[in-house]
UniProtKB/TrEMBL annotation:
Organism annotation: Aureitalea marina
UniProt-recorded name of the protein: Peptidase
All residue ranges annotated as the Band domain in the record: 24-189
Membrane topology: Single-pass membrane protein
GO CC annotation: membrane
Subcellular location: Membrane
Matches recorded under Pfam families: Band_7
């Protein structure tokens, strides 16, 4: 076996060292990610500039890059909380969040890679307990869910805005009450619905009675006016007009003139 020439050993060692240095120096940051540069001999975490963006980067081999996802992410958080009267309620909430891109270095330096467990989860839990504690189980179950969702978002955002984290939305997906409380609320809501329905029927009946009364009064007033306007001469004229129309009819008939009490003709059908 031939030995390597003496000059070949240093060259081979140099090539190996170069490959190692390049491997240590090359960093590829994927889509939706950003990198925080840590300078071992240059003051640690770089916080006074933008993070490293997507793509290929070359750094000093003694430095290090910490890669963070900067797209919107979701955390699902089930938690027990207490209502205003001390009953335990279980709510399930989701939060949409993402690191503030320009402050990624500060986030890494002050909170670290586990900022989700150190900052976001405690903030959501604290806000949820504070908000739910203002409401009764009845309000939580029926009409206040949207208000609770908005208030949890507002209070959580106040906390996270100071922690280099952007909160986009909080969604309350479910509110679970103790079975006995839930059954009692449902019975109460059913009774209230029945009471409203009964009031509606009463109001409808009262309006119908009022309509009939007004209609009867209108008919009575019309009859009074009509009776006052019908004199004997008008009635006689109407009778004569009707007699003439019947006399002109093609049907066979017998007309007796002047036989009525008021002197109007009588028409008798000969059939």
């Amino acid at each position: 076996m031939e030995r390597l020439p003496k000059v070949g050993i240093p060259v081979l060692a140099l090539i190996i060292i170069t490959i190692i240095v390049l491997a240590k120096s090359a960093v590829t940051i994927g889509s939706g990610e950003a990198g925080v540069l840590y300078k071992t001999f240059g003051g640690g975490v770089v916080t006074d500039g933008p993070p490293l963006g997507e793509g290929f980067h070359v750094i000093a081999p003694w430095n290090k890059v910490y890669i963070y996802e900067v797209r919107q992410q979701e955390i699902f958080e089930p938690m027990p909380v207490l209502s205003s009267n001390g009953l335990e309620i279980k709510i399930e909430a989701s939060a949409w969040y993402q690191p503030i891109y320009a402050d990624l270095g500060k986030l890494h330096q002050e909170k670290g890679e586990n900022y989700l467990g150190r900052v976001i989860q405690p903030a959501i839990r604290s806000a949820a307990r504070s908000v739910v504690g203002r409401y009764t189980p009845e309000q939580l179950y029926s009409s206040k869910r949207d208000a609770i969702q908005d208030e949890i978002f507002t209070e959580t955002k106040k906390i996270l805005d100071k922690q280099y984290i952007q909160l986009n939305e909080v969604l309350v997906r479910d509110v679970t009450l103790p079975p006995t409380i839930k059954d009692a609320i449902e019975r109460k809501l059913k009774q209230e619905q029945e009471a409203l329905e009964y009031e509606f029927r009463l109001e409808k009946a009262e309006k119908e009675a009022e309509r009939q009364r007004i209609e009867a009064e209108g008919k009575a007033a019309a009859n009074t006016i009509l009776s006052a306007s019908l004199t004997d001469k008008i009635l006689q004229e109407k009778g004569i007009q009707a007699t003439l129309e019947l006399a002109q009819s093609p049907n066979a008939k017998i007309v007796v003139v002047g036989s009525g009490d008021n002197g109007l003709p009588l028409i008798l059908n000969n059939n």
